[in-house]
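ok so I'm stuck.
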Amino acid sequence: MATSIPFLSPGDTVGICAPAKAIEESLVNEAVSFLKSNGFNSFITPNCCGRHNYFSGTIAERLSDFQLLLDNPEIKAIWCARGGYGTVQIMDLLNWASFIRSPKWILGFSDITFIHGKLNRLGYPSVHCTMPLNIPSNSGEAKSTLLDSIQGKSYEIKTFSDPNNRTGSAEAEIIGGNLSILQALAGTDDQPNFHNKILYIEDLCEHLYSIDRMMQSLRKSGALSVISGLIVGGMTELKDTNPGFGMGVEPLILEYFQYRNIPVAFNFPAGHIDDNNAIVFGRKAFFEVSKDDVCLSF
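replied:
not stuck anymore, here's the structure
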């Protein structure tokens, strides 16, 4: 069981930083307005809206911003502004001592999967959710589940069942995130603990053969033999080769579970899609896949 983190109440402050790719200031301002309209204060780090080539700042600047939020006791949650690439560059340079003394919620997805993996190994929950980059385009459910997750409210995500789903149920903590980054974490000191967990995966702009290679990596690591359920979120803008791979992403993934009787759900509303519902990693959830629908409840 993950160590608990205090939930937020209106009036609390959310810190916003960009540990990876640069982001437009206007999008950060929209996120600030979103927080304000829901009763929360915000703090934007000095380099959040900066630019250094592809990144929001140099490694030193991005490290300083994230460390500032980890160390500030007034900040009750850290909301990463966007993904892209770059979080891994600061991961091993961060000092987590203040966080461990006074843990806080860390929010984001995509490249932020590196941080989710670190927190899983440290024994703390985190939230896979929309980010300031996506606030203008995201669904009401994406935003409301984010608010519910950080305030400790009970909520459920319900969707229609995909024909490729495997029915069943599981009650366990959820781990995971971006599949490409989960593969990058394999065998490292930040690889999450998969044992008896519900695994959630999503990805963007990958070739089908790359998805297969990443699933092979998870299989070879032993992860797929010990999970108790699989949630597949948006597999967005996938590519094929010419000649083609020979199957779609759903049968490709199902091949890895021919001999496992666990619930599997495809096209779950989370990931690089507008309906990016919040999933709390490290918090026990009930996952049920029936013939007609899929429900994930916290």
